[in-house]
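User: Here's a structure from my thesis project, written as structure tokens. My advisor, Dr. K., wants to see whether a designed sequence matches the one we expressed. Can you design one independently, without my sequence as a hint?
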């Protein structure tokens, strides 16, 4: 059997681009197909533009706090088109960087949608066909506009929210996940009246409950109106904006509805099922520990597999795939102790088990907590609190989880993850010298547990 390529990658996001470049470095002939812009969700419509908007929103606090430190700040105003244009310039630069990196690695970029026609063949939207020894699916995920209610199509997803032609003075966000709370935090600080509607009693299901409750309070302080347990039932277009009927009987008039109720793997119309690839109920490609699908020649990495949907995970999976298949170095990914951050203000950084998870798996726990005003707030007068929590196995002292709410929490979680991955104990934390004055020093100065938890009989 003859092949045009050793590898065809479908999707030029973080995972696919890394896999293509590493496979090429191992001597493989590689092509990568992308129907949109090179860089994927993270670069174009996810992590990067979102963090830029987060940083933009935090200047409001900076201007307000400066007075307490002796600065005289004049009138300030925010201009939405300027931010949108600056964001577009930066992601265009990053996309070009990705393209250049692929080219310098010897990877052929095919700007067209790719559909599988058999386990080793691909048809591109431009009419071209090609055969490859291996095919890697790295198409990521896409927002889901749910719940399915009349008028939901009038809302926007996280794809469109970055490029609204006008700033939404009145914004309803539907959903309680990290995308929903991040945009609630951003737009409230940029000056919008934000309402956050979600099914549960608290946002961020799956995170530690102490973080969830404290973040909810912080968002309320920032002006975000919570509608817990309430969802829209109908959306219509009216003379004054979008008219939204809510499940509690209330009626809202808003400029924009952001539907942030989840994402799904982007596997539709790729020909996967026709060539024998098994998909999970939500459309994710079912893969083994080596990212191989049910068809021997087909692999998948990143959000399209719905394992751990984070950009660094997709990159690591792409690297492992290429090293395993083309570098003759069989590699699997250990997903334990994967840190994550939620870029609200205040920020969340977390790694390891939540309190509920640890109690179910390990039995008795020692819980260490610290709450304090950051030094900055002492002069600014802002009602801001930092919260830190360590979950420790009572039987051996091993730190099972670390959860932080406050400035630069994501930066701290990245470093704490190294310690947890190495099996650090609470005594290791205690023996580590503090850096003073910092917020992070609290992680090594908590001496007495705030409570002891035991599983209920």
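Assistant: Designed independently from the structure alone:
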């Amino acid at each position: 059997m003859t092949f045009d390529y050793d590898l065809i990658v479908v999707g030029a996001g973080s995972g696919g681009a890394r896999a293509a470049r590493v496979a090429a470095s191992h001597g493989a002939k590689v092509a990568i197909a992308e129907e949109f812009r090179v860089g994927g969700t993270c670069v174009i419509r996810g992590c990067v533009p979102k963090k830029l908007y987060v940083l933009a929103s935090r200047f409001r606090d900076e201007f307000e706090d400066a007075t307490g430190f002796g600065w005289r700040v004049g009138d300030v105003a925010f201009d939405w088109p300027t931010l949108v244009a600056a964001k577009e310039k930066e992601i265009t630069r990053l996309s070009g960087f990705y393209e250049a990196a692929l080219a310098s690695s010897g990877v052929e970029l095919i700007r067209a949608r790719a559909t599988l026609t058999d386990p080793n063949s691909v048809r591109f939207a431009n009419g071209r066909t090609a055969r490859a020894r291996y095919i890697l699916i790295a198409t990521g995920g896409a927002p889901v506009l749910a719940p399915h209610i009349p008028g939901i199509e009038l809302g926007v997803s996280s794809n469109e929210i970055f490029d609204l032609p006008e700033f939404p003075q009145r914004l309803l966000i539907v959903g309680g996940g990290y995308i929903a709370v991040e945009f609630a935090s951003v737009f409230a600080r940029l000056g919008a009246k934000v309402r956050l509607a979600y099914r549960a009693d608290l946002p961020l299901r799956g995170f530690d409950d102490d973080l969830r409750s404290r973040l909810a309070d912080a968002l309320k302080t920032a002006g975000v109106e919570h509608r817990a347990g309430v969802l829209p039932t109908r959306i219509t277009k009216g003379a004054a904006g979008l008219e939204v009927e809510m499940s509690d009987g209330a009626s809202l008039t808003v400029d924009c509805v952001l539907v942030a109720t989840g994402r799904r793997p982007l596997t539709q119309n790729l020909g996967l099922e026709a060539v024998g690839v098994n998909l999970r109920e939500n459309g994710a490609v079912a893969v083994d520990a080596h990212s191989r699908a049910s068809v021997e020649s087909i692999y998948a990495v990143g959000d399209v597999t719905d394992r751990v949907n984070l950009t660094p995970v997709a990159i690591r999976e792409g690297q492992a795939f290429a090293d395993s298949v083309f570098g003759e170095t069989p590699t699997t990914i250990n997903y334990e102790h994967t840190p994550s951050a939620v870029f609200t203000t205040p920020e969340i950084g977390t790694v390891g088990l939540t309190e509920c998870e640890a109690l179910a798996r390990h039995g008795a726990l020692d819980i260490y907590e610290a709450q304090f005003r950051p030094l900055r707030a002492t002069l600014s007068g802002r009602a801001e609190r930092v919260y830190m929590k360590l979950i420790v196995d009572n039987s051996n002292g091993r730190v099972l989880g670390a959860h932080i709410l406050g400035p630069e929490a994501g930066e701290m979680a990245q470093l704490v993850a190294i310690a947890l991955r190495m099996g650090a104990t609470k005594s290791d934390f205690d023996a580590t010298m503090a850096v003073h004055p910092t917020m992070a020093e609290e992680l090594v100065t908590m001496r007495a547990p705030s409570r002891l938890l035991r599983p209920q009989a």
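When you compare it with your expressed construct, this may help: The chain has a mean pLDDT of 96.
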